[in-house]
Design a protein that fits this description.
Number of strands: 8
Structural class: alpha/beta
CATH architecture of the largest domain: 3-Layer(aba) Sandwich
Shape: globular
CATH topology of the largest domain: Rossmann fold
CATH superfamily of the largest domain: NAD(P)-binding Rossmann-like Domain
Strand order of the largest sheet: 3-2-1-4-5
Order of helices and strands: EHEHEEHEEEHEHHHHH
Distance between the termini: 45 Å
Helix content: 40-55%
Length: 286
């Protein structure tokens, strides 16, 4: 099996998919694209983001594609993996870009390796293409289906050599808990903070500092995609939220007792204890 990637198919040409396509094409890889939006496909061809389109997701030529990358929202990712079952256990390697993995449950497949390129933005759509989006960023790979080693190496080679990324292996359980804390929770908190300001009826207008602007940026992310992420990673997100609640309660208690902001912003020991609290939560509590 040739582990080099010469021909790829990117399914979904939003910001992530179009950025992958553009970066791969700039390295001399032949890039095919597919998107349900005909206007997006036309733009991708007209602006030389992809080399060609395919007529149907059900009619992929196994002799013309080395790697398929699904760059669609989490729920659609699972639907597409199943729709591509006629390509399972073939020489084509299949991967994704979803930031939550626990819902992807497949059996009897040896050519699917899961990926999560840690690069993104509150922006979306092909107009947000960023040719340097992935450069020197990290990509988490998961291999829950015990994919053939050659398929795993092909995915690694693509992210490292075509997109200049670093790769790290994790289990799905490790991945989803870590990103519940480091990515999904910040987005959830941003929605809550902006909603609390909205319901306060205060005229904030332009009286916001840099910190609030970052929350505004996060809360402006694609709402449909983040709704899916919150629901699919619900258990780990509840664990992360519970850990944050412990921290907020500790901080509130300290401030109430001392009548001043406590000097607790050396976080090493505090974070260590919070992580223990988070990991101690069991799924049967939810």
């Amino acid at each position: 099996m040739n582990l080099n990637v010469e021909n790829i198919l990117v399914v979904g040409l939003g910001m992530i998919g179009s950025s992958i396509a553009f970066a791969a094409k700039s390295k001399g890889i032949n890039v095919n694209g597919f998107d349900l939006n005909d206007d997006v496909l036309k733009k991708a061809i007209d602006e030389n983001i992809i080399d060609a389109t395919i007529g149907s997701i059900e009619e992929i030529n196994t002799n013309q594609i080395d790697l398929i990358i699904l760059a669609v929202p989490p729920k659609q990712t699972l639907e597409l993996f199943n729709k591509l079952d006629y390509l399972w256990n073939t020489k084509i390697t299949i991967t994704d870009t979803s930031s939550v993995k626990n819902h992807i449950k497949l059996k009897g497949v040896d050519n699917i390796v899961l990926s999560h390129p840690i690069a993104g933005s509150d922006k979306s759509g092909i107009n947000s293409l960023d040719k340097n989006l992935f450069t020197e960023k990290k990509n988490i790979l998961c291999n829950p289906f015990d994919a053939n080693e050659d398929h795993q190496k092909r995915v690694e080679n693509f992210w490292v050599n075509a997109l200049n990324m670093r790769v790290e292996m994790m289990t799905v359980a490790e991945h989803d808990l870590i990103f519940a804390m480091t990515s999904h929770l910040p987005h959830l908190v941003s929605y809550a903070l902006i909603d609390s300001i909205r319901t306060s009826n205060l005229g904030v207008k332009d009286n916001s500092g840099g910190g609030l602007k970052e929350f505004l940026r996060l809360s402006g992310s694609n709402a449909e995609m983040w709704r899916d992420i919150f629901m699919l990673n619900r258990v780990d997100l509840i664990k992360a939220l519970a850990g944050m609640q412990v921290s907020l309660n500790n901080l509130l208690e300290l401030m109430t007792e001392t009548k001043q902001i406590p000097d607790i912003f050396s976080h090493d020991e505090m974070l260590k204890n919070e992580l223990k609290e988070i990991k101690s939560f069991k799924e049967d509590k939810f």
